[in-house]
Write a structure and sequence with these properties.
The radius of gyration is 17 Å and the shape is elongated. The protein has seven helices and no strands. It is an all-alpha fold and 126 residues long. The protein folds into two domains: 69 residues, 434 Repressor (Amino-terminal Domain) (Orthogonal Bundle), CATH 1.10.260; 39 residues, no CATH class.
Amino acid sequence: MTTPFGLAVRHLRERKGVSQKDMAEALGVSAAYLSALEHGRRGMPSFDFLQRIAGYFNIIWDEAEELFRIARISDPRVVVDTAGLPPEYTAFANRLAAEIRDLPPETVRRLAGILEKACNSRRNSE
């Protein structure tokens, strides 16, 4: 499996036509680390490393911002802090954690859409 960030890095690397080994060497990391990032086996990289990736690919600021955003939502080890929230929030977070592996992709897309609509609605009312 991979993460949105792993896919983005792989696409950037393929677009530039470089191997993991060459990219890793240029960024000062091991090819194993870069492979783990691309395959979702590592958490979110440091801001410094994200900046090195942006510089390596010489991407414009908007594209770099998008890469940083994707990195923030790609950590495969998520922690949801429901301290101080009503009990149903904690129950929902725990139920999602327990069930997420068995949810079909369409259900995940629908849930993501519901969350996006709720966030947009909240932003628009502020």
